[in-house]
Design brief:
heterodimer, A: about 150 residues, alpha+beta, Heat Shock Protein 90, five-stranded antiparallel β-sheet, B: about 110 residues, alpha/beta, Transcription Regulator spoIIAA, six-stranded mixed β-sheet, 8 strands, about 30% helix, about 25% strand
């Protein structure tokens, strides 16, 4: 993926580890995208990517570790994201609905189940497919690209 | 997870000195909060002014801390940055927590780095 041919495209390959996810997100959003997207759009993109990557670490690679490949590209309408992994497929071959449960009493507030709700709420054109033993997740974050 | 603490006669303010509460730090955050709040029965306010990012694991950890404190000691949050506010709002957790716009200044408070 030669980055010199696609100046607005960034490719990152990380191990399936929460600290590697943190470092990749910091590299992308504290450095690369600073000054190229608004702070609000960067927050939105970082939330969606974090949830997608954490989900791969926790579920797709729950049994054995592996690599995650992330390709992000700034285009006129926002940030296009492609995430690939060679872990377990999505159960049922489809993405979770990510519907928030009704807010219960304080005693049994949910401590999880927010991830897919955040991804679905904040992303556009969300697609998943299994291809050659790999998971491919694609989505777009609407954003105003700053001139640079 | 670096947390430190300001104590007044009726309130314990725990300042998060990290910029992220995420999947890599959520368990550590819960453990440190449990240690810090075990010594007394004061109200607890979490100062999030330095935290510029939280993910769903971090949110789950904050909810877990609230539940561990029990119904008589509801966890209060203060000084949410925009990304943190967004995650609380989209998950409707902003309706569950008492959220203060800023951290109160207590002139007589004892400040202990922990």
């Amino acid at each position: 993926m030669p980055s010199d041919e696609r100046p607005d495209q960034t490719r990152i390959v990380i191990p399936s580890d929460p600290m590697a996810v943190r470092q990749a997100l910091q590299a992308l959003f504290d450095h690369l995208m600073t000054g190229r997207m608004s702070a609000d759009d960067r927050d939105t993109a970082q939330i969606v990517l974090a949830e997608a990557l954490n989900n791969i670490v926790e579920h797709a690679y729950a049994q054995e570790p592996g690599e995650i490949e992330v390709i992000v590209e700034l285009c006129a309408s926002g940030l296009t994201c492609r995430i690939m992994d060679a872990g377990l497929p999505m159960p049922g071959g489809t993405l979770p609905q990510g519907v928030l449960a009704p807010m219960p009493s304080n005693d049994d507030l949910p401590e999880g189940g927010f991830g897919w709700h955040l991804i679905r709420t904040l992303s556009e054109d969300l697609h998943y497919r299994r291809e050659d033993g790999r998971n491919l997740l694609t989505f777009r974050i609407l954003a105003q690209q700053y001139p640079h | 997870m670096e947390l430190d603490c300001t104590q007044t006669p009726d309130l314990m303010i725990i300042h998060v000195r990290e910029t992220r509460i995420d999947a890599a730090g959520a368990i550590d955050f819960k453990d440190r909060m449990r240690e810090l709040t075990a010594f007394n029965t004061l109200r607890v306010m979490l100062d999030l002014s330095k935290v510029t990012f939280i993910d769903s694991s971090g949110l789950g950890a904050v909810v877990a801390v609230r539940k561990a404190l029990g119904p008589d000691r509801p966890l209060e949050l203060a000084a949410l940055t925009p990304a943190v506010e967004k995650v609380f709002r989209l998950t409707r957790m902003d309706s569950v927590f008492i959220i203060h716009p800023g951290v109160p200044v207590h002139a007589g408070g004892q400040r202990d780095a922990i």
